[in-house]
From TrEMBL:
InterPro entries: DUF309, TTHA0068_sf. It comes from the Bacteria. The lineage of its organism: Bacteria, Pseudomonadati, Thermodesulfobacteriota, Desulfuromonadia, Geobacterales. PANTHER family: EXPRESSED PROTEIN. This is DUF309 domain-containing protein. It holds the Pfam family DUF309.
Length: 129
């Protein structure tokens, strides 16, 4: 059984690359495949990451309520995982998602397109050695 202390599987690498290319819907699809077979903290990690990706997809599509809701729920699940899970800096992803959510709430639904691109989360890939 895989856990957070394992190395990053190829499917997760693909999801991170999709996320960073802002292919959030595709990232969600990739993470869903991982999430279905996972258990415990790993399942929470995959589902939380998936929800952040879907939140960003909602933001791009102009769905304010969906974006704000999932930028709350995703980090809640991610907090159940350790700060680093399969090479992903979970703590940094939580912080980025929460900054984006706070900005969206401040802007409101009428100004959500004003979000600065620099606030969009990016997942750093672990160094390969």
């Amino acid at each position: 059984m895989q856990g957070c202390d394992e190395t990053m599987p190829g499917e997760l690498l693909r999801a991170v690359e999709q996320f960073n290319r802002r292919e959030w819907f595709e990232c969600h699809e990739t993470l869903e495949e991982l999430w279905v077979g996972a258990r415990g903290e790993l399942r929470d990690f995959y589902q939380g990451f998936l929800q952040v990706a879907v939140a960003l997809h909602h933001w791009r599509e102009g769905n304010y309520k969906g974006a704000v809701l999932l930028l709350e729920k995703g980090p809640e699940l991610l907090r159940r995982a350790p700060p680093i899970c399969q090479g992903v800096d979970v703590a940094a992803l939580i912080a980025a998602a929460e900054r984006l959510r706070a900005t969206l709430v401040k802007l409101g639904p009428g100004r959500m397109e004003e979000v600065d691109d620099a606030l969009l989360p990016v997942v750093a890939l672990p160094a390969r050695g």
